[in-house]
Amino acid sequence: MSSPAFDAPASWPALPTDALSEGDVLQLYRAVLGREPDPGVAQRAAGRPLAEMALEMVRSEEMALKVLSPVVQRRDLPHAHLSDEERLHLWQWMGQRLGWPAPPLAGRVRPEALLRRVCGHPRLSQELQAVHAGLFTEVAAHFAQPGALDLQGKIEFANHEFISGWLTDLSGQRATLRVEVRCRGRVVASGSAHSLRPDIREHIGGNGLCGFRLPWRPEAWPSGQALSLQLTEPGSGTAVGGPYRYENSRLDQLGVAQLLSKELEEIQRRIDALATMVPQGLRYAAFPLDHYDLYRRTHRVPPPPWLQERAWAGVLTPPAVGEGVAFRVLIDASAGDPIAARSTVDTLRAQPWPHWQAWIVGADPVVTDAAALMAAADPRVRGVSAWADLPPDEGAFPWCLLLEAGERLDPMALPWLVHAARQTPQAAAFYWDEDTLRHAGGRAPAREERHVRPLLRRAFDAEAMLELNIVGRSLALRASALQAVAPALAAAEAAQAAGPLSPAPAAREALVWALAGQGPLVHVPQFLLSRVDSASTAEEVDRSKDGGPGESVLRLIAQAGPEALRPWLPAAWQGRHWQRVTDPLGASPKPLVRWTPQRPEAVLSVLLPTRDQLGLLRDCIDTLRAQALHPGALDIVVADNGSTEPETLAYLAEGAARGDFRVLRIDEPFNWSRLNNRMAEAARGEHLLLLNNDTRMLSAQWDDILRGLLEREDVLAVGARLLYEDMTIQHAGVLTGQERFVAHDAVGVPVDDGLGLLGPQLSRRMPAVTGAFLACTAATYAATGGMDEAQLSVTFNDVDWCQRAAQRFPDRHIVYSPLLSLVHLESKSRGFDFQDPLKQARADYERQAFEARSGGWVIEDRGGNPQLSHWVRPGTALD
């Protein structure tokens, strides 16, 4: 019978006599002796009866010297060397494997609680009493002391008004504590410790509600004397922590403050020095996408915050379905592969969130047979032959998850979707990042599964959705949103065969567009799904390229036409005509969207600053006119900023005389912002194009393409795909948050790179575009006040204008269009700033001015994927 000191319940289960596993040996050593077994012991002891080994341990001399004696001597138990996580797992093992009862946990598992539980078992207690007699009696007496608190705390700071610090009870008996501060036996301050201190909770333990800030009157004590302040717990009168020395002199306090100020100044200097090293350190920490499989092997998808909090608290069971997040999972098995359907269901069963019901949709007999087999093993799995046969949802499942047979969910997929549903309950749908799982044939290691071709999505972008289903065919959608759009979708031609949930590509695109009108489409930036590669043999794998777009991207190329999508498109697009056309450079298998202008000959003013460099200027103007659909509707304005070369002056005079362009002579120091503002004032066009003179137009009918975009009410500005002469990307939009600043996207990437389907080959909305090609309406430019010619004369003026314009017109968007493509000989006309100390000094000043005015806007990654590293070339590595 156990000692009453351990509050043993009326009945304990007998010690198990079955064979130990290696894991059991490890946990038994931790439970009884508070340490790991010696090397090789776990393997040798595996198979022994558990009760036999437990009794052998409690009889041992080590139990007396290293476990029981420290209790009597008030020293740390060996269990204290186990981590919090190890003690929690040990506590759970005692309950699950041994069936030992225990009171509810209050905070973390303390070493004494583990030993109490061991000593509380009647059989072990009997053996301890028999072998260790008097020593065990003292241990029992120690544990029998009622209400023993495990107090920790300290006074951290005192001044002439307040005393602050913390006090916590690690035994978990009291959630909050009363506090007294005594000086020479007198209480000088009192109150309660209830302020939240996450740092104490993380590093010390307890619930974190332990901070205090108590008013006091030091002037009641003689000035100039040092006072010794002692923190105490009034209930027990226990002094906690050491005394705090307070110099009761305002002059002394001032000296301390000055000393502290100097120390803080030195700390700040060191922090600044470390901050300069952060970008390089983070570059080394980033994982190149070329080694994505290694990244997945070393970086598992983490549990969402709510699941981490429950694990930390020792709660292993999931919340009840009454919390409102249950999933109806619809698996398209129309391909007739029963093994694929089973593999998808297997990943559902592995989810720690059990509130789901799966329907396998497939008419092939082998699929229906497999569905029946799975249903017999798990009542949550059902099967139907066709989408039309799905029974109506009666409201038990507020979320619907669409999958294809063979797709494998990450073990954390449903927990992350639960997290997203709680964070954004108004969302119409959730989508996620995914990759391809390659499982080739042949011998190991060739046949080992590898994660390749990561598909890193971004925030929903209606512009991009017209060219590529950026959400994907597998997604989670709110059941009420689906019910709202189902009647209209069912009537659509693309979905007539299978209803609104038809897996046909065009029908699934229509579903995404329809859902976009019911609420936000929210991106969950985690790799929640893997698609199995179609390559099955080693030879096929060798021939394929991990870096290419792969079938997982090509299958998402948009197929739904303008008429099928018309009911679901944004209001600003209604009544406007668009079509999909081939990439003018042949760089992409994906078509690009071209908008038809309603005023095809509206005057378009092209603003070209220049100084000499006749060859560049002539090529720029000649290609503009040659590639234009309506060259007569171009108003080319050249700002001659001090040209002196005779050939340039003659060309400008002759061109102006022929009416090819107009020339503004502006003889003053180079100020790109001012030159463009002067040209904008003189422009005659409804639309403006700010263009560098070191560009060559590649896109035929570029003016018609640009007018089609600028006529849209929702377009704020337009940027183009700019290329180096070797046909690699120089500009595909401007990103924010890159090394806490701005950067061009996809710099140096070949224009026909396969992964460009998700970036430079995709029309999309961007935070900003470069001033080397920046188009907007004349009214928009005037409303923003033009470029800042006072502080940003040469650099960052384009991004600054984009930010100000977006703030002025929050319902309009900056669009990057690869349908507009040019060669850009970057800084060929004026050179790079770093080549001239004066230019570099001016650039540094302008950067500081831009950062100061932009605030957090330039630091945040706006619309990108947070899994991508912001400390290397954009889009090339993962954090």
Characteristics:
nine-stranded mixed beta sheet, 27 helices, alpha+beta, 879 residues, globular
Helices and strands in order:
Elements: H1 22-33, H2 41-45, H3 50-59, H4 61-72, H5 84-96, H6 111-119, H7 122-144, E1 151-158, E2 162-169, E3 177-183, E4 186-193, E5 195-196, H8 198-203, E6 209-215, E7 226-233, E8 238-247, H9 250-285, E9 287-288, H10 292-298, H11 305-312, E10 327-332, H12 338-349, E11 356-361, H13 365-377, E12 381-384, E13 399-404, E14 408-409, H14 413-423, E15 429-438, E16 450-455, H15 462-465, E17 475-478, H16 479-491, H17 505-516, E18 521-532, H18 538-543, H19 550-554, H20 562-565, E19 578-581, E20 592-595, E21 604-610, H21 614-627, E22 634-640, H22 646-658, E23 662-665, H23 672-682, E24 687-691, E25 695-697, H24 702-710, E26 715-723, E27 729-731, E28 734-738, E29 741-744, E30 764-766, E31 773-777, H25 778-784, H26 797-808, E32 813-824, H27 837-854, E33 877-878
Parallel strand pairs: 10-11, 10-13, 11-12, 15-18, 21-22, 21-24, 22-23, 26-32
Antiparallel strand pairs: 1-2, 2-6, 3-4, 3-7, 5-6, 7-8, 9-33, 13-17, 14-18, 15-16, 15-17, 19-20, 24-31, 25-32, 26-27, 26-31, 28-29, 30-32
Give a description of the structure.
The structure is a single chain. This protein is α+β, with helices and mostly antiparallel strands. The protein is about 35% helix and about 20% strand. The protein has 27 helices and 33 strands. The strands form seven sheets. Strands 21, 22, 23, 24, 25, 26, 27, 30, 31 and 32 form a ten-stranded mixed sheet that branches. A hairpin with a 5-residue loop joins strand 26 and strand 27. The longest helix is centred in the first third of the chain and has 36 residues. It is globular and about 115 Å long. The two termini are about 55 Å apart. About 0% of the residues have low confidence.
